[in-house]
Automatic annotation (TrEMBL):
The keyword Nucleus applies. Residues 1-18 form the signal peptide. It is found in: Nucleus. Its main location: nucleus. This is INO80 complex subunit D. Residues 112-170 form the KANL2-like probable zinc-finger domain. Keywords: Nucleus, Signal. InterPro entries: Znf_KANL2-like.
Length: 179
């Protein structure tokens, strides 16, 4: 609680000095307390509405970005880079520093050893390990199953199909459909 809130409450809850003023004073303090909580509640509601609007805007932006990525991946990549550089300029990171930064190494592990592949742009994982990042929304796992019932674990960038397939399984499906 803030210092002002503490001072406010201590003044409201301080005992009165005379018995005649007790009823009036208590009523006054309760009224002040109600007013304070109503103002606090209204403020919290405004904050919640603002957060909800921001969340909706971010969701709409993400959706539009995914749609653009499926139609024009190169232009979308260029747009993301421009947005990133604009954000960096706002946070006073120089443009030359941004260009000098090498892609980071993947943070995934293979049989207990650190992966040596370079991470995809704006991520900490390479293509092979991108599915380890639970918050990413561009890649999904291939939906094909092997003969033993095991799921294919190859990452797929295919946001246009309900059941995305990796390149190998897509070719097999194509061959199966046209034979």
């Amino acid at each position: 609680m803030s210092l002002m809130g503490n001072l406010f409450f201590s003044s409201l809850l301080a005992p009165s000095r005379s018995d005649d003023d007790d009823t009036e004073s208590r009523s006054s303090r309760v009224t002040q307390l109600c007013t304070y909580f109503q103002q606090k509640y209204k403020h919290l509601c405004r904050l919640e509405r603002a957060e909800s609007r921001q969340k909706k805007c971010r969701h709409t932006f993400r959706k539009a970005l995914l749609q653009a990525a499926s139609r024009e991946p190169e232009c979308t990549g260029q747009l993301i880079q421009e947005l990133q550089s604009a954000a960096c300029r706002r946070t006073s990171i120089s443009q030359t520093k941004l260009r000098e930064v090498e892609p980071a190494a993947c943070s995934g592990t293979v049989k207990g050893e650190q992966c040596t592949n370079k991470a995809l742009p704006f991520t900490r994982h390479c293509f092979q390990h991108i599915l380890l990042n639970r918050s990413q929304q561009l890649f999904s796992s291939c939906t094909a199953k092997f003969a033993d019932g095991q799921q294919c674990s190859v990452p797929v960038f295919d946001i246009t199909h309900q059941t995305p397939l990796c390149e190998e399984h897509a070719k097999k499906m194509q061959f199966f459909l046209y034979m």
